Amino acid sequence: MIATTQLKTTNSEEIFAAAQKLMPGGVSSPVRAFKSVGGKPIVFDRVLGAYIWDVDGNQYTDYVGSWGPAICGHTHPEVIAALHDALNKGTSFGAPCYLENVLAQMVIDAVPSIEMVRFVNSGTEACMAVLRLMRAFTGREKVIKFEGCYHGHADMFLVKAGSGIATLGLPDSPGVPKSVTSNTLTAPFNDLEAVRVLFEQNRDEIAGVIVEPVVGNAGFIPPAAGFLEGLRTITQQHGALLVFDEVMTGFRIAYGGAQEKFGVIPDLTTLGKVIGGGLPVGAYGGRQEIMSMVAPAGSVYQAGTLSGNPLAMTAGIKTLELLQQPGTYEYLDGLTKQLAEGMLEIAKETGHAAWGGHISGMFGFFFNQGPVRNYEDAKKSDLSKFARFHRGMLEHGVYLAPSQFEAGFTSLAHTKADIDRTLEAARAVCFSSI
Considering 6, 26, 61, 219, which has the largest number of Cβ atoms within 10 A of its Cβ? Predict the structure, then answer.
């Protein structure tokens, strides 16, 4: 790994040194600490469109996009203007707000599985709540998740999880009682036979299956042909629920999410990121008969002081309005295809094994011979090479996710010229730095 940099990073280093005395590891979320790519993290100062600037004045083309929400580009003028208007009315009511109705109707109209929706403050909250709801509706306690899929940091999901767990190489679930995770079953992604076996071994005990329909927290891993359809069939055969965790893919790979893209309709869906337009938000929804069990309509309790706050609702509404404009997803797909295919071609030209791809505005690549169909395949990647590549791209003004095990994102603010410059940087780095 590379611990030095040619970038001017004096201010970033000073701020991070101070942060380490104030916050665990100096960060508020683990991947930001650059542990898997070496060097010190960059401390950012401002964002605009497809670009970010750090506290030392360096500019980068951004392919993290606040980990997905910035699909329209950072600080989109229409989103900011709407937020200014909303801010003048107050930041939080702790009471019903008409804007909740507006965004709820937009979500219901867009996402095939959702007939009713509940807003929360994060994807983690949404996944916690949906797990409780799955168990209450079915009267069963066990749930199946997939190795390398990340559904937030709640205890019951920190079993063979991706995201920061994969990045830092942490044990499965330190600090989590075995009693909490004993009902969490795991299978490899894209392995239907493993799912069938779990259902056979745990007959009438499994509440449902939760899955990232496109994995983004073990790196970008798309579903194999028939995998999502197979999950739908198996869960229906066993009277279990199918949950799509679309916190990352919702409104990102299609306006109606992965379920629209692949034509597979789950029973419940979790959302986040894009529907908040860059503000903290999450949501879960599904069939009315299931969602009617949530308090106060039913007895499944879940609450949140800032849930449905007017600022998050405003940013979400304006973002979804922008995404409804004609050609939005065609533009994202074309741009991201140019980037993803270009990266793989450059790796091949320069003698580096690489595997990857894209769907709409979501992409990823591994320094790995491939194919990468699941988390075990992803772990065969050359992490040291990725670390050198990441640092080299920073040197050339390109900001990628600081982990081999994270997907990347484009936005409507990125241009063909941005992609061309990024590929030029990648070619230079692959030839000289790794």
Answer: 219
